[in-house]
Amino acid sequence: PTCEEDGRGALVVVEGLDRAGKSSQCEILARRLQEMGHQVRYVRFPDRSTPIGKLIDNYLRGQSQLDDHSIHLLFSANRWEAARSIQEDIANGVSVIVDRYSYSGAVYSAAKGNSNLSLQWAWQPEVGLPRPDLCLFLSISTEEAARRGGFGVERYENDTMQKRVRELFLSLIELPHNDEICVIDAGKSVGEVAGDILEPVLECMKNVDAIGPLRKLG
Ligand code: ADP
Ligand code: 2DT
Ligand code: MG
Prior knowledge:
Blueprint: E1 11-16, H1 22-35, E2 40-44, H2 51-60, H3 68-91, E3 95-99, H4 102-110, H5 119-123, E4 134-139, H6 142-147, H7 159-173, E5 181-185, H8 190-211
Parallel strand pairs: 1-3, 1-4, 2-3, 4-5
The site of magnesium ion has 2 residues, from helix 1.
C-alpha cells in the first residue's frame, strides 16, 4: 500500500557542489522513502545514457570540444527529453528524486571563466520545465569538499571553477522567488545529513496536494 494512492508525487531536487554528497543522499533518501511505502524514482542529470547524454559525457571527459552555449543547451535538452516521463510519474503518485537540475545547469555555465554567458541567459532554456516542489541545497565549503577526495579528470573539477560555482549557487538561492529552497549543512556525517533531509522531504510530500498540480519553472 502506498500513501499517494489519491494524490500526486513530489518533485524533489538535490543540488550542490561536486562531492557535497548529492548522489549518496539521493540513494539513501530514495531507499528510505521506499521502505516507508512510497513510490519513488531516482533520476540524475546529466543522464548520460541518451544520445544527447552521450554528447555531454564526451564533453565532460574532454573527448570533444563544444561552444559554451552549445553544451549549455545540450544539458538543458537532456532535461527536456526527460520532462514528460517525470510529469507522468508525478501525476501517477510517484515521487521523483533528482540529482542535479536547472540550478546546476545555469550555475556551471555562468561560472566558466572565459565565457560571456550570464546567469540570466543561462536560465532561459529552463523556463517551462517541471518546477521542483522542494530543492535541497547541500551546502559545503570548497575546502571541505576537497577533503573528500582529489579532483577527478572531468571538466569543471578544479578549484577556481568550484569557488565560482558556489558563489553563483548562493546568489541564486537568495532570489526572492526561490522560497522552495532548503539549505542543508552538508559538512555533517552521512547519517546526520540524511536525517536533516528526510524531514523537509516528508513535509513536502504531505503538502503537494495542497500546492495543486506540478508547476513550471518561470
Ligand atoms: P556528489 O554526488 O555530490 O558529488 P557523492 O555522494 O558522490 O557526492 O560523495 C562524494 C564523496 O564524498 C564520496 O566518496 C562519498 O563517500 C563521500 N561523502 C559523501 N557524503 C559525505 C559526508 N557527509 N561526510 C563525509 N564524506 C562523504
Ligand atoms: P555529475 O558529476 O553530478 O555527473 O555532474 N553540469 C551538470 C552542468 O554543467 N550543467 C548541467 O545542467 C548539469 C546537470 C556539473 C557532471 C558535471 O556536469 C555539470 C558537473
Ligand atoms: Mg554525484
